[in-house]
Amino acid sequence: MPRLCLITVPGLHVSSDWRPVHDRLLETFPEVTDVLATTMKETILVVYQGAAPDDASRWLDVVSETLLRRRQSGGAHVRPGKRAVDRSEPGRPSTGLRSLESLK
Known about the structure:
Mean pLDDT: 78
Number of domains: 1
Largest sheet: 4 strands, antiparallel
Low-confidence stretches: 78-93
Number of helices: 2
Distance between the termini: 16 Å
Order of helices and strands: EHEEHE
Radius of gyration: 14 Å
Number of strands: 4
Strand content: 15-25%
Helix content: 25-40%
C-alpha cells in the first residue's frame, strides 16, 4: 500500500522546481514511486512504498541539494533580494517532513 510524506522546503517553487526534484528523487530512491506537486506553498508530496520513511531525511537532503544546484547554475528564476520567510509555528521547524499518517 502506498504511503505519503509531505516535504516543505523554504524557497521551493513548485511550479518551476517540481520536475527536477521529482526526477532526482525517483532516480535516487527506489522506494519513492512518485513525487506530486501540491498547491501548498513550498511543499511536495512523496509517494513511497514501505513501512516507514527510513530515508525521509535523505529525501529532504536531496531536495535541498537539487534546489541549491539549480540556483547556482541559473536553472531557476529567482528574484534578486527574495528570501525564504519562516512561516512556521513557534517551536516547529520551517523545513521538514510530515508523514500524513501522523495527521490521522
